[in-house]
Design a protein that fits this description.
CATH class of the largest domain: Alpha Beta
Largest sheet: 5 strands, parallel
Oligomer: single chain
Number of strands: 5
Pfam families: CbiX
Number of domains: 2
Protein name: Sirohydrochlorin cobaltochelatase
CATH topology of the largest domain: Rossmann fold
Strand content: 15-25%
Helix content: 40-55%
Strand order of the largest sheet: 1-5-4-2-3
CATH architecture of the largest domain: 3-Layer(aba) Sandwich
GO molecular function: lyase activity; metal ion binding
Keywords: Lyase, Metal-binding
């Protein structure tokens, strides 16, 4: 079963313990030839696992780095997942999010007909992201020796 993207009220902490053991999060990034870029997604995955309490958190990449999306889904299933939330760690809903990732889910559904899958929404526009951008701008200005304050 595949669910379309949508916003859920509340958060992942509302899962019951027995449900969490069957649930996996697959964080999907674009992938890069630059190792540090790929390692960043692994760091985010560790944060998600610690914060959410969901015991199965895996990482996969759309291009240029392993594991690919299908291997990521395989890893979730191998760890006992009965449902997988595929979360696109992308800023915007471009072609990968709107076309490629749903196609990956359709392919996986053929291999795992009993696996429930849902696709989360990309990061998008969020007040916390605005705060992070302002923080990073302030850091860059400080490194440049500029005295401009950023709220």
């Amino acid at each position: 079963m595949i669910h379309a993207p949508g916003r859920a009220a509340g958060g992942v902490r509302f899962f019951k313990e027995k449900e969490m053991k069957k649930t996996a999060i697959l964080l999907m990034g674009h992938g890069s030839r630059v190792a540090a870029a790929n390692e960043a997604l692994h760091a985010i995955a560790a944060m998600v696992e610690e914060t959410s309490g969901i015991p199965i958190v895996e990482v996969a990449f759309r291009e240029q780095h392993a594991p690919n999306i299908q291997k990521g889904i395989d890893a979730c299933v191998a760890r006992g997942a009965e449902r997988v939330l595929l979360y696109p760690y992308f800023l915007y809903a471009g072609a990968h999010v709107l076309e490629d990732l749903p196609a990956e889910m359709t392919e996986a559904a053929k291999r795992y007909p009993g696996l429930e899958m849902a696709l989360g929404e990309p990061l998008g526009v969020h007040p916390k992201l605005g705060e992070i951008v302002c923080e990073r701008i302030g850091e860059a200005m400080a490194r440049s020796g500029w005295d401009q304050k950023v709220a």
